[in-house]
Amino acid sequence: MSNAKLPATTKKSKGDEITSGGSQDYVTMTIADQLFGIPVLQVQDVLGHQRITRIPLAPPEVAGSLNLRGRIVTAIDVRLRLGLTSRPKDKPGMSIVVDLRGELYSLMVDSVGEVLSLSNDDFERNPATLDPRWREVSTGIYRLNGQLMVVLDVPRLLNFTTMEAA
Amino acid sequence: MDDLLSEFLTETNENLSVLDVELVRLEQNPNNPELLSNIFRLVHTIKGTCGFLGLPRLEKVAHASENVLGKFRDGELTINPEAVSLILQALDTIKSLLAVLEATEAEPPGDDLPLIERLNLCAEGKLGSGAAPAKPAPAPEPPPAPAVAAAEVAPASSGNLTLDELEAIWNSTPGPTSTALAPVAAEPAEEPAPSHDLVVPDPDPVPAAAKMPAPAADAASGAGAGGEAATKESAVAAQTIRVNVDLLENLMTMVSELVLTRNQLLQILRSQKESEFAAPLQRLNHVTSELQEGVMKTRMQPIGNAWAKLPRLVRDLSHELGKKIDLQMLGADTELDRQVLELIKDPLTHMVRNSADHGLEVPADRVRSGKSETGRITLNAYHEGGHIIIEIQDDGKGLAIDRIKQKAIQNGMASEGELAAMSDQQIIQFIMKPGFSTAAKVTNVSGRGVGMDVVKTNIEKIGGTIEIKSQQGKGSTFVIKIPLTLAIVSALIVECAGERFAIPQISVVELVRAAADSEHTIERLKGTPVLRLRNRLLPLVSLQELLRLDDQEGGEKKTDETFIVVTQVGTYTFGIMVDRVFDTEEIVVKPVAPILRHIEMFSGNTILGDGSVIMILDPNGIASATGEMAMGETASKEATSVQATRQEDKMALLLFRAGAGAPKAVPLSLVARLEDVDLASVESSNGMPVVQYRGKLMPLVPIDPGFMIGQEGRQPVLVFADGDRSMGLIVDEIVDIVEERLVVQLTADRPGLMGSAIIAGKATDVLDAGFFLTQAYKDWFGSSSTDAYEEERALQRVLLVDDSPFFRNLLTPLLSVAGYDVTAVENANEALALCEAGEDFDVIVSDIEMPGMSGFDFAEAVRQGGTRWSGTPMVALSSHASPRDLDRGRQAGFTDYVAKFDRDALLYALQQTLSEQKGAA
């Protein structure tokens, strides 16, 4: 269990608007060989493989729930959320824990990379031709050396149809 | 100091400091209605509590301030600095009165007429109202204007005042006079802006009071009291600390984490045979467990704590309103989260007050409409599914739909047309709107329209709902449903298809193992599984199918063995099929994530001791998902089984051996649990052996007083429990459980034994559990004497009506020993059913506090109904035996009235009653 705890900040402001000039810090991760990023301030924790309790009758994207230091965290399979196939069983995977309106969610991804400080000049809106499912959960794309990084919008990522049914 | 008083002081002081800040903010933002209504409510609360505690002087000041604030709220007055400082002054007066109250536990004599007059003037709009200038000095109307300034300027113009007036002003403006003096004196010459200065220095009277060198004799007492109060205040503060619930919450999380780490450590330890860490880890283990329990406890409180004030409140209300009110509180030990408790405390008080004020009629009206003079308010709290339900019920006139309509039109909340289209239920909802009050006049008690909207907001804040049922002429019921969030419940852990789930223990009736080789097998009716259980068909629900679980653990299905959790929801009983049943565990219910809330099968989730997350099943959800079949049928079956509790029927008896002589027996229903105590864990306290049991000390009592407890090994113990208390009776060996009719043949003269009976073909001593209970706790019953009662043994028939199974089981053997033929029923309705069934009794013994029909109503029903029982003497059993209750009991038709726990008195009363009856016959 590799718990790389990031700077202890209890309340995080979500979705800082990206302005021109200056730079933003992102935690990067890979899902199906694609690079994704989440603003670092929204990230609570990075977890290794966890024991997850399945939740019957829950939406397919909800992988289950896990115990993070006494708090119950809902695990979301980001692969399924992005319309990809689920991860092969033999790969352990990692998770990024984010906070949304006081609730913790654990985003299950293939692997978590590093924290990158990216210049706003490299930021671009989603291409209009992007898969609608991805467009819905992404705020834009960063042009990096040799690859593109998709910025995930946490509130929208966690807002699947059933969510407001509560 | 009186608990009530000290709580009032803490609370009011807190409220006052909030008020200080809020008032200043209000002055800066006069158009903020939220701020204003908050202030209004705070003052209203202070006034209310003062009234109930019988503090007229405080109440008057608060009442006058509230009037002014009320005018602000209704927009009749505009908020201006003068009025605000006046109210702040009133608050200061309240503070100084509180200081004296804290020091002497009584209000200081005297009154605050000058202040109240000014407040009233202000409320009438004659003071600083409307366009009146901000500065007091150039105000157009001479008399009121100096009055505003009087307090501040008083010492300067003292030459014109008599000593009495000066003292009055001194009382009303305790400290800040000196601080406020300078700006006031300077002010008239300056521009209007500094008028704020009048207000700002006020809020902190303590330093000012300390500054006072006490020049005059009169002043000395005041200042002295103030100084004393300052030291006293710290004394009160030292006993209780108010801790932010968030802090507790954090603590709880940390402790949970600690527990998990501990568990991991223990796991590692188990894998190592010899380790020097063993002893310290064991200690860590204990400390952690205790810490966890302690932290949990800080959050949980019985709801009775929120009710503690109510009897007093109702008593005072009944005097004030000239009504006769009987307050019944049931389920006071239902535990709920402290935070929730705090939030429902005020709403409950409001609602009880409303019921007393608006709901119940005056005695004359009640008699006219054919009810008893005394109105009843019943509070009932209980767990149901994942919720805590609190019912506030009154038998008053019910909500007046017409009046609500009128008022709604008057307040412009709805038009007549709209109202015509609404159902009664919708109309009732208006009473929850802010500013709504149907009471014809604004009384001291209620009627300002702060009540129900606060109630609603507070309850909704904690995710609860409130439901109103009203029946014209019959009374109204408010049902508050609060989710069980954070409340600790005991849950049964089960497994199904490799997943574990928790089922709240409260809805589990029993567990049945069904297998091919056992006496229970699952049968199928067109695919629907059912189980024959004691000659009834129990519908079954497969958890695996219900939750659409696919077997992950390979295809190996253990179809040969299934466990059935028999679950009861309301009157619907059904079985949940699971693969395995584990232990029960105390769990803290946590709400599920918002994205999962639509799944009605779960009431929450929790973290178990081993750190895994587990979903908590909601029996209500499962019941409604599988259809609530057979409701009516089950209910009727239950009704026909009333007779089953007749004493003639067999009784389960626990046989055991202890000491020399015959085997001993005790009714099984009296025994809460059978335990095996490790003698090494027995400690001694107060010369009595005790053992730590479920976080409490449980005294151990041997049957033979000379019995010495060994040092080692294990000893079987019968645990008797009633409410909070438990007692362990040390026995040598538990022999058997038999069902026999208990007929005590010989009475014993040895204390602790009721007598002998033939049980399982052998002469057996029947134990008097009551005797041993009193050995453990002297006050378990009112009386501890255990003489043998050798009075006339002609079998006289006694009907015992008591809702508590404990007392039913205790009194039944007691009375049968005393030579009565006892029939015990659970409630008045069952008793009346027996009456209709043609049973006759020589005497009826009835409890007073019972859910549903109370003992009083029961007696009236028996007496007035012209039934065959109308001549049967009745003895009331009650834990309250005040003269008022006695009177009431007599009026209702009881022949005698006995305190509940006084067994001698009961037997004496029965004997008296019966011999009188004989004499009369």
Automatic annotation (TrEMBL), chain A:
Keywords: Plasmid
InterPro entries in alphabetical order: CheW (IPR039315), CheW-like_dom_sf (IPR036061), CheW-lke_dom (IPR002545)
Disordered: region residues: 1-20
Keyword Calcium: no
Ranges for domain CheW-like: 23-163
Entry's Gene Ontology cellular component terms: cytosol
Pfam families for the chain: CheW
A biological-process GO annotation: signal transduction
Protein name, as recorded: Chemotaxis protein CheW
Protein source organism: Azospirillum argentinense
TrEMBL record, chain B:
CheW-like domain: residues covered: 488-628, 650-778
Catalyses which reaction(s): ATP + protein L-histidine = ADP + protein N-phospho-L-histidine
Record's keyword terms, sorted: Kinase, Phosphoprotein, Transferase, Two-component regulatory system
Domain HPt: 1-101
Residues annotated as domain Response regulatory: 797-915
Residue positions where 4-aspartylphosphate is found in the record: 847
Record carries keyword Isomerase: no
PROSITE patterns: CHEW, HIS_KIN, HPT, RESPONSE_REGULATORY
Domain Histidine kinase: 236-486
Residues the record lists as Phosphohistidine modifications: 44
CDD domains tied to this protein: CheA_reg, HATPase_CheA-like, HPT, REC_hyHK_CKI1_RcsC-like
Record lineage: Bacteria, Pseudomonadati, Pseudomonadota, Alphaproteobacteria, Rhodospirillales
EC top class named in words: transferase
Name under which the protein is recorded: histidine kinase
Comp. bias regions, Polar residues: 170-179
